[in-house]
């Protein structure tokens, strides 16, 4: 690692005599690492990678990224007719929204890449012989609505059995180069959705966005909602597979969807002042904040629907080491649809010396199950799964005690909770006259000395400490050099006794 220094909260690195921001240094190192990884393949004469194979990887990744948020009246999957089911009568489908024709498949700024292929949803329908009427409805910018496009979209919707509306954030609405000041979609898209829903009640919204958007203000106008994020070059085929039921959606939300931007804890500090922003939420970021403080959200972290139904049972946790455990559970597909479910394991600490979230995701596994099939899944929790970063020890720290292990399918859909008792890592710091009485009690050596103080008090050798709840409230957070404040000269003798005894034991 190159040497570094900090100036005005920006970390710089010194590399080959040049001073550059550390973030750029890490980016450069990442590019060098990537070049080294590909060196073996690129050294082969006339080497060519398999474009179709890579596209299929992108296809599968896109399928597993799609999160189904809503599916009222089982509006999805749609019936594509003879292409998918020769005996079924096809639904008349309207596709509305420019994103269906011009997909937003990647982020902005420096994330731009050139894909080897690009297959939109409309391209996929044409390739698969699926008929649908299309109307763009709006332009992919932040300009005002075009009444002609809106009228065309509404007329197209009137003649359909079901409407697929492709909505979301255009690139101008989000980027690495600026902060968003709202979580809403462009107003013209919401207005168009309201107009279309008034003409046809069978609407499915397909979202394209790189960061979370609020759903609650317009969700009543859609029976189905698919959060597809930015799906990459093979997003069109992936969406078609899910929409027409070739596969069941299995994606889960990687962040909570709040009801309002002001519900987010970062709003207390954003956008900052006088040239700086404080990251004041500390460890209470995202679901760690919402769940700890019981804040209502629209969709919780880890949420995602399926065409199948699942049941989690036989949850158990077994201690495998002083501060490690293994969690097992049986997952059953209780439907007649083959699909995958993601089992999530959250760790909830007991009483802690520091402020900790209500629970934190510490493990998960996706399991594919045939209709009616059951499997037992196992998730190992290492020491870090139970640890927090301690400023006092300048290290990760596991406290002894009981931890709750929650197993479920989102941060707010927990199937069962079991407990495991851990030994703790035994970390201690030297005790001094400035250590609190509670810290003395919690320390292996200090606990013996506290017991000796109690015994000496009973024997009349030291002042006897009052043993009642009120006194404990004062004693526990108090440095022992403050005992004279409560006990006068007797408190001074107790403090000196404790320091002297500690010096003997800690040799």
State the low-pLDDT regions, or none.
1-16
Rg, nearest Å: 30 Å
Overall outline: elongated
The overall average pLDDT, rounded, is 91
Structural class, judged by helices and strands? alpha+beta
Sheet with most strands: strand arrangement: 4-9-8-7-5-6
Q: What is the overall number of helices?
A: 12
The largest pleated sheet is described as: 6 strands, mixed
Looking at this protein, list some descriptive labels.
507 residues, alpha+beta, 12 helices, elongated
Mind explaining what this structure looks like?
The protein has 507 residues and is of the alpha+beta class. Helix content is 26%, strand content 24%. The chain contains twelve helices and 20 strands. The chain has a six-stranded mixed sheet with strand order 4-9-8-7-5-6, with helices on one face. A four-stranded antiparallel sheet has the order 15-14-19-20, with no helix packed on it. It has a three-stranded antiparallel sheet with strand order 1-2-3. The protein is elongated and about 95 Å long. The two termini are 38 Å apart. Mean pLDDT is 91; it is low at 1-16.
